[in-house]
């Protein structure tokens, strides 16, 4: 894949190498130390000052689409920003030029790792080999760029009481992605962006921070729309937010902000966010959003692939960012440390055990699948139509309802922290395992759903031993691998690319501290990262492509002089990557897991 469409002459090749040499020198690595960010070269405290960015692109990737990014960078410069958050990217594309151009202007990028099809579905949450493969690929791909600031793994996945169980799978994904990055020589912070839902968020932030540093979120993003119009620090609820995170042990960043109940937006909250009342607690934020959509949150109107027109919000944000000059501490002077939060008590309000789902292991799953005799008629988990998914889900629901032990290997009980050892495999492998168990028990390979094959693997091999799940042998059947509840905060101590990480350090580098002469990242600096289903057994209902779930958020409308809860102060459409759904969950049986897993893939592939 060429960076330039024309053949590269020696002269152009020299310029290309020189440009990437300049890239490696153009931007400094940022350190996440305890709850603050620092420029590792200058030692100065760093605040994110940015915008959320996902303009229309023919390839749905505004950084790989170099015409789009070159159109918009001059406007980034006018705004005076140092960071953009990009929700959708394609790791199979070339991002060298786009990232180079951004770095040359001192602009870092915060990437969402999920996509509409590779994500933890809040209605049917699973953490399996397919989702892990997609997330790992994107994480490693962007880690080589010096201006990759951080990763967001999950945007508003848990957005109400009914979606609380999904939080366990998000945390497992954070744990394993951090380990995968470290195994590949990178230490990019991995965090989460919450919906700022009163009540629910109290539990989410504690849960994602508790346990060990290997599994905690390296930073906490808040999509916040509390300050509307000419509100104030107290009226908006920002004072409360600061009190909540005053002694937090990792950085807190406003990953979306900018209420639009009062238009045009004046962004008077910028002075508070970067002022002395907040800048020692909140490490800046990103205004939602760059381009105008139906939700009226844009800063520019897009006229074409080469032209945009700034609106009044643009001018106001430019003025607001231009007048701030935050001051803080320095890297050498900052020694504050704070403990991790205790895990929320497991009860009716928070039915989520601190024990996490197992680490997806493709080799173990392939081993297990190779020992089966009755398998699904479907062969490609990435190519399942909604009708196929529904039919298979119904068959699995029937099997699990009539033969519970056939499904125990893939059962998920989030409240008690019990996860079938094979629940982390792809949906067709899990479905095949269930069909095979039922076949061996009853002699029936379900017609229309299953087919008989000759096992290709070694039937004497204990495939469960490959998973790394540490449970006493007396409680784990080599075939089903069912685990028992544990008081541990993690069910797995290894990944398919296992690595160990120190839990003593409280620093994480967001970029490589050293680069080679051609601009490619070498191993990061030695500072260590601060870390790491259910549905009805009936046919799964349809969900929509993941969009931001805009829940109630405390706001103050200009002139009201009081705080109130509004639903209209949050965008109802946009570029975020998680799907909304009102599909209820019923229990934690294996049929729910497999149907959810299959339905999630099938629906999102439609």
The N- to C-terminal Cα distance equals 29 Å
Overall shape: it is: globular
Structural class: alpha/beta
Task: Please bin the fraction of helical residues.
Answer: 25-40%
Radius of gyration: 24 Å
Round the mean pLDDT to the nearest integer and report it.
80
**Strand arrangement, largest sheet?**
4-5-6-7-8-9-10-11
> If helices are DSSP runs of H or I spanning 4 or more residues, what is the number of helices?
13
What profile does the largest beta sheet have?
8 strands, parallel, barrel
Question: In words, what does this structure look like?
Answer:
Helix 10 runs parallel beside helix 12, helix 11 runs parallel beside helix 12 (427-442) and helix 11 runs antiparallel to helix 13. Helix content is 27%, strand content 13%. It has helices at residues 10-26, 66-79, 96-104, 129-143, 166-183, 200-209, 238-245, 269-273, 312-323, 362-369, 386-402, 427-442, 590-605; strands spanning 30-33, 36-39, 45-46, 48-53, 83-86, 108-112, 148-155, 190-194, 220-224, 252-257, 282-287, 300-302, 308-310, 374-376, 412-413, 418-419, 450-452, 507-509, 553-555, 564-566. Strands 4-5-6-7-8-9-10-11 form an eight-stranded parallel β-barrel, surrounded by four helices. Strands 3-2-1-18 form a four-stranded antiparallel beta sheet, with no helix packed on it. Strands 12-13 form a two-stranded antiparallel sheet. It is of the alpha/beta class. The chain is built from 13 helices and 20 strands.
């Amino acid at each position: 894949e060429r960076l330039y469409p024309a053949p590269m002459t020696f002269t152009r090749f020299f310029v290309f190498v020189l440009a990437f040499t300049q890239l490696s020198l153009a931007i400094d690595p940022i350190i996440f130390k305890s709850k603050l960010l620092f420029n590792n070269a200058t030692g100065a405290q760093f605040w994110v000052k940015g915008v959320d960015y996902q303009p229309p692109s023919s390839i749905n990737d505004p950084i790989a689409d170099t015409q789009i990014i070159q159109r918009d960078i001059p406007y980034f410069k006018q705004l005076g920003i140092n960071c953009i958050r990009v929700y959708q990217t394609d790791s199979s594309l070339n991002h060298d030029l786009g990232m180079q151009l951004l770095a040359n202007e001192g602009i870092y990028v915060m990437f969402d790792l999920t996509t509409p099809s590779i994500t933890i579905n809040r209605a049917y949450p699973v953490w399996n080999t397919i989702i892990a493969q997609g997330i790992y690929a994107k994480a490693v791909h962007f880690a080589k760029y010096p201006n990759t600031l951080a990763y967001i793994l999950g945007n508003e996945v848990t957005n109400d009481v009914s979606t609380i169980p999904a939080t366990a799978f998000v945390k497992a994904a954070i744990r394993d992605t951090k380990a995968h990055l470290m195994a590949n020589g990178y230490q990019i912070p991995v965090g989460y962006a919450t919906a700022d839902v009163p009540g629910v968020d109290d539990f989410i932030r504690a849960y994602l921070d508790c346990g060990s540093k290997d599994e905690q979120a390296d930073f906490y993003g808040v999509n916040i729309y509390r300050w509307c119009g000419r509100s104030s620090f107290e009226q908006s609820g920002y004072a409360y937010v600061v009190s909540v995170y005053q002694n937090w042990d990792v950085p807190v960043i406003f990953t979306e902000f900018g209420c639009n109940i009062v238009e045009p937006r004046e962004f008077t909250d910028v002075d508070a966010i970067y002022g002395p009342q907040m800048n020692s607690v909140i490490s800046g934020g990103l205004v939602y959003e760059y381009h105008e959509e139906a939700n009226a949150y844009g800063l520019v109107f897009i006229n074409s692939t080469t032209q945009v027109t700034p609106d009044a919000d643009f001018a106001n944000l430019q003025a607001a960012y231009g007048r701030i000059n935050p001051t803080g501490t320095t890297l050498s002077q900052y020694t504050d440390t704070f403990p991790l939060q205790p895990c929320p008590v497991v009860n009716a309000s928070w039915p989520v055990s601190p024990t996490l789902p197992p680490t997806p292991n493709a080799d173990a799953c392939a081993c297990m699948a190779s020992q089966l005799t009755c398998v699904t008629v479907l062969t490609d988990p990435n190519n399942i139509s909604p009708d196929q998914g529904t039919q298979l889900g119904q068959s699995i629901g029937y099997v699990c309802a009539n033969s519970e032990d056939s499904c125990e290997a893939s059962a998920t009980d989030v409240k008690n922290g019990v996860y079938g050892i094979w629940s982390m495999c792809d949906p067709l492998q899990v479905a095949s395992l269930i069909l095979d168990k039922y076949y061996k028990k009853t002699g029936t390979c379900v017609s229309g759903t299953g087919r008989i094959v000759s096992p290709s693997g070694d039937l004497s091999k204990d495939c469960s031993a490959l998973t790394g799940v540490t449970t006493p042998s007396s409680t784990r059947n080599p075939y089903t691998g069912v685990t028992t509840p544990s008081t541990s905060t993690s069910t797995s101590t290894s990944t398919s690319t296992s690595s160990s990480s120190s839990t003593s350090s409280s620093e994480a580098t967001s970029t490589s501290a050293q680069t080679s002469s051609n601009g490619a990242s070498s191993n990061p600096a030695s500072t260590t990262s601060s870390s790491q289903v259910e549905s009805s057994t009936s046919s799964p209902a349809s969900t929509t492509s993941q969009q931001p779930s805009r829940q109630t958020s405390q706001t103050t409308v200009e002139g009201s002089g009081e705080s109130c809860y509004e639903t209209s102060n949050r965008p109802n459409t946009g570029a975020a990557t998680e799907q909304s759904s009102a599909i209820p969950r019923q229990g934690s049986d294996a049929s729910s897991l497999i149907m959810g897993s299959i339905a999630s893939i099938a629906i999102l592939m439609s």
